[in-house]
């Protein structure tokens, strides 16, 4: 694995993610249809999976970020609150959570934007091991906040957290919901530990290998078809005149 030190939301962060299949989108990447739809059959990639594969393929061609940017206000708010949540977590747990930007797999095709590496081992200037991870969410929607406090259901983020553990080798990830407006009643920091699940990771990574091939197929299509079409038009003067 390889660490790229950069602040989330910066130009360097977006650039480091360009062409990378990121853990926050692993659920989309491996999503498949459960029943036939149109010309697609059950087991085929969903529309979300195909769109993401296409976006990543374009990024690998251009070397630049592609697609709709994240809402600036949302990103700014999240970054500011994460900076507050991290020391609050450290104070209450006694753990050290180091921000590390983006962690890439050895082949550079998969990545995880970590909110914190817990109790990392550093050799020289390189992080070589971390005990665990933290994944911070700072929701605005009061319905989501209430649901988390009532149920503790983190399944929505499971692929992202297990994906982070897969890439970093960490054994657990502490899910954190940070809502500073609830500090007066002691519910500003909700923490739930998620343990590494090897079976989940094995099944997820198998799906990701198929998705990686789909990205490669789309890249080939984008690279070759347009060039072939231009060549065909160039070879037929009557088409140019039309």
Structural class: alpha+beta
CATH topology: Lambda Exonuclease, Chain A
CATH architecture call: Alpha-Beta Complex
Work out the helix count.
Answer: 8
Going across the biggest sheet, name each strand in turn.
3-6-7-8-9
* Rg value: 21 Å
Q: Hey, roughly how much beta strand do the residues contain?
A: 15-25%
Q: Which consecutive residue ranges, at least 5 long each, have pLDDT under 50?
A: none
Largest sheet: 5 strands, mixed
Global mean pLDDT: 90
The 3D shape can be described as: globular
Terminal Cα span: 53 Å
Q: Mind telling me the CATH class?
A: Alpha Beta
Query: How many separate domains?
Result: 1
User: Number of DSSP strands?
Assistant: 9
> What is the helix content?
40-55%
| N-to-C SSE string, H for helix and E for strand | EHEHHHEEEEEHHEEHH
Structural write-up:
This protein has eight helices and nine strands. It is of the alpha+beta class and 242 residues long. Helix 3 (47-62) packs across helix 7 and helix 6 crosses helix 7. Strand 6 and strand 7 form a beta hairpin. The strands form two sheets. A five-stranded mixed beta sheet has the order 3-6-7-8-9. Strands 1-4-5-2 form a four-stranded mixed beta sheet, sandwiched between helices. The protein has helices at 11-17, 26-29, 47-62, 72-93, 142-151, 158-168, 198-234, 237-241, and strands at residues 2-4, 21-22, 97-98, 102-104, 110-113, 117-123, 126-137, 172-178, 189-195.
């Amino acid at each position: 694995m390889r660490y790229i030190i950069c602040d989330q939301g910066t130009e360097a962060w977006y650039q480091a993610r360009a062409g990378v299949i990121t853990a926050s989108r692993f659920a989309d990447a491996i999503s498949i249809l459960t029943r036939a739809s149109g010309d697609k059959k059950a087991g085929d990639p969903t529309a979300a999976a195909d769109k993401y594969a296409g976006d990543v393929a374009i990024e690998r061609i251009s070397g630049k970020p592609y697609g709709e940017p994240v809402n600036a206000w949302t990103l700014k708010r999240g970054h500011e609150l994460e900076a507050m949540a991290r020391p609050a977590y450290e104070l209450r747990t006694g753990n050290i959570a180091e921000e590390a930007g983006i962690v890439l797999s050895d082949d550079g095709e998969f990545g995880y934007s970590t909110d914190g590496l817990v109790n990392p081992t550093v050799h020289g200037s390189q992080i070589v091991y971390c005990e665990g991870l933290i994944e911070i969410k700072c929701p605005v929607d009061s319905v989501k906040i209430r649901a988390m406090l009532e149920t503790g259901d983190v399944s929505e983020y499971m692929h992202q957290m297990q994906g982070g553990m897969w890439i970093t080798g960490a054994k657990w990830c502490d899910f954190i919901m940070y809502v500073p407006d609830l500090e007066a009643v002691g519910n500003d920091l909700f923490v739930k530990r998620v343990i590494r699940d090897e079976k989940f990771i094995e099944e997820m990574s198998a799906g990701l290998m198929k998705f990686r091939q789909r990205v490669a197929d789309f890249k080939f299509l984008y690279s070759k078809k347009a060039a072939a079409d231009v060549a065909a038009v160039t070879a037929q003067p009557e088409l140019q005149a039309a």
